[in-house]
Amino acid sequence: LHPGRLGFFCKLGYGEQDVRKVLQSLGWEAPEDDVLRELIRMGSKPWAPDIPPRLVARGVGGIPGLSPWLHEEGHDSSSHLRPIVIDGSNVAMSHGNREVFSCWGIRLAVDWFQRRGHTYIKVFVPSWRKEPPRQDSPIAGQHVLAELEEQALLVFTPLRKAKGRRVACPDERYMVKAAYERDGVIVSNDHYRDLQNENPEWKWFIEQRLLMYSFVSNRFMLPDDPLGRHGPTLNNFLSKNPVPPEPKWQPCPYGKKCTYGNKCKFYHPERPHQAQLSVADELRAKLQASLHLGHEEEKPRWGP
């Protein structure tokens, strides 16, 4: 036999049984390329060695210990739009004027982000909202929750019963964690004060990535400046690669009398195509130009 040849392909990660089968079929002296081609044709895959876990930037993926729904739709990482995490209870109660859990409000919010092109959208709703509505907690359009769940757009947070009483896990923690790991945006009018005080990283994230909204009749509306007048626009807020705004030049209040020259941070319309020079530098440049012109005129036009 040829133990060296067999060991060579086994070191590449292929199974010993598959390598033996291919070598017996092609011959023990077959070229390495032919053996590898046959192994690939057979569907044999090299096993992955024990490699320490690779450090991954937050929001890119591969976070151990997370639920499976956080890892699905891996193609979304290449999208230029941020993932969207919607506080379903907050949106539904807002659309129902704080009296009815209106699932139609969730549908309006999801449709708005889908029309914009977002590929990763997750809505979080407590599991007990699947139960038949009661008089003290009316629900409108409950079938919408089932439709969104079938489309993998809605996640029901866990629920358990202890001694006949319903114990619901707080869905706020799931939402903030999902948005934080995905480096996405939280759609809610809640400020999550408890979670901000609990974790300083979450505090910064909630302050920078909380997107508030409003309903005007059946229209889902978002502010043009989510972080205030001096913050990013809505398009930049929802984009992974924000586009810097074009500089707005403010005319110099001193006009032609400005003596700051190139140190002036304002715009001078009287000199659009030349460097901003000080008045003294401009006078020197004009004087040199006039002297050079006079020197050229003094030269004889014809030779001796």
TrEMBL record:
TM annotation in the entry: none
One GO CC term on file: nucleus
UniProt GO molecular function: hydrolase activity; mRNA binding; RNA endonuclease activity; zinc ion binding
Keyword line: Endonuclease, Hydrolase, Magnesium, Metal-binding, Nuclease, Zinc, Zinc-finger
Pfam families per UniProt: RNase_Zc3h12a, UBA_6
PANTHER family in the record: N4BP1-RELATED, RIBONUCLEASE ZC3H12D-RELATED
Family membership: Belongs to the ZC3H12 family.
Protein name: ZC12D ribonuclease
Species this chain originates from: Eudromia elegans (Elegant crested-tinamou)
Taxonomic lineage from the root: Eukaryota, Metazoa, Chordata, Craniata, Vertebrata
